[in-house]
Amino acid sequence: MAPGAVPFLPTEEKALRESFVRDEDERPKVAHNVFSDEIPVISLAGIDEEGEGCRRKEICRRIVDACEDWGIFQVVDHGVDAGLIADMSRLAGEFFALPSEEKLRYDMSGGKKGGFIVSSHLQGEPVQDWREIVTFFSYPVRARDYARWPDRPAGWRSVVERYSESLMAVACELLGVLSEAMGLERGALSRACVDMDQKVVVNFYPKCPQPELTLGLKRHTDPGTITLLLQDQVGGLQATRDGGATWITVLPVAGAFVVNLGDHGHYLSNGRFKNADHQAVVNSSCSRLSIATFQNPSPEAVVYPLAVREGEAPVMEEPITFAEMYRRKMSRDVEMSRLKKMAKMEAKQKEAAPAKDGEVAGPAAGPAAGPAAKPKTMEEILA
Ligand SMILES: O=C(O)CCC(=O)C(=O)O
Ligand SMILES: [Fe+2]
């Protein structure tokens, strides 16, 4: 466990522990419940209609506009049974209410694939996220490891299986729309994922004593093709289009899925579709639950733009596998955090001993100012 990390979130303490305190530039700029209506809510009713002036054309147009704009949209009338969504949400809430020992039966630290963990499954995070997660890999079906799926609360496994299957269908439908928008045939994006992976992450954000100092989940883009996020009515999902200068809080819509384009979707569209830049904020009055279903290509799938429009250059230098794409992304993230930490330490040292007139302040000495880190392997990235 990282220094200062705790096995459970200290929700009863009055002041936030240092390990959760974000640098000022990373702290929330907008409250969890000041909602924006900028992200379109799109009904998928009639998506099967074909022909001139049909509903499908209008739905596609709105989805494509949203992908070019924020890389985010919400869908309703998506065909997933409302009772199933209610069951999934209820069971997710019940899981986090289980006693700590029960949740820790699925402890995933040490790089285990799936289970329960506090904050993050990544190593070397300089600041902790204010959340607990339970995660499991649901597709391909042959790769399911039921030993890593909770067996409590009762009914979890069968509900989760039905939920995963329903969301896989919605995801494939949406990938069909995006493929057509790229001038390709409907199955193109799904095929580029080879044997599509699906991973479900249930996020639980307890109420927090000082939410203005921390994040439930730090700013990021999702690595995969698309993510379907189910959130409760509390609010906390935020998005930025200007590199984090300004943020909006996505309006929670009951029964809707928020669809985020991921890095893979971004690359395959040659950068035409944005990869949603997002984070989750917390609050001091109640906990929040969200269920993210990540649709990813298989690790060996080749990542390269499927369509490059006239006058554009490919956004990638060479085709790489998704596993390599993910590894590079993660080591970039770790390296960025390292550099930021170094810069902060240098600034502190300069503050303590400012350069005298005529003297040039040199780089900080010590281990933090060492040579650039060597590329990390996945084993070094996962907690
Ligand atoms: O909880 C949220 O609103 C965001 C979750 C998310 O972005 C993720 O799990 O990748
Ligand atoms: Fe995300």
Automatic annotation (TrEMBL):
SUPFAM superfamilies: Clavaminate synthase-like. Pathway: Flavonoid metabolism. One of its GO terms (molecular function) is L-ascorbic acid binding. Its cofactor is L-ascorbate. Keywords: Dioxygenase, Flavonoid biosynthesis, Iron, Metal-binding, Oxidoreductase, Vitamin C. One of its GO terms (biological process) is flavonoid biosynthetic process. Its EC number is 1.14.11.9. InterPro entries: DIOX_N, IPNS-like_FE2OG_OXY, IPNS-like_sf, Oxoglu/Fe-dep_dioxygenase_dom, Plant_2OG-oxidoreductases. It catalyses: (S)-eriodictyol + 2-oxoglutarate + O2 = (2R,3R)-dihydroquercetin + succinate + CO2; a (2S)-flavan-4-one + 2-oxoglutarate + O2 = a (2R,3R)-dihydroflavonol + succinate + CO2; (2S)-naringenin + 2-oxoglutarate + O2 = (2R,3R)-dihydrokaempferol + succinate + CO2. Coiled coil: none annotated. Residues 346-383 are annotated as: Disordered. It is an enzyme of class 1 (oxidoreductase). Residues 193-297 form the Fe2OG dioxygenase domain. Residues 346-359 have a biased composition (Basic and acidic residues). Residues 361-373 have a biased composition (Low complexity). Belongs to the iron/ascorbate-dependent oxidoreductase family. Catalyzes the 3-beta-hydroxylation of (2S)-flavanones to 2R,3R-dihydroflavonols, which are intermediates in the biosynthesis of flavonols, anthocyanidins, catechins and proanthocyanidins in plants. Can act on naringenin to produce dihydrokaempferol, and on eriodictyol to produced dihydroquercetin. This is flavanone 3-dioxygenase. The lineage of its organism: Eukaryota, Viridiplantae, Streptophyta, Embryophyta, Tracheophyta.
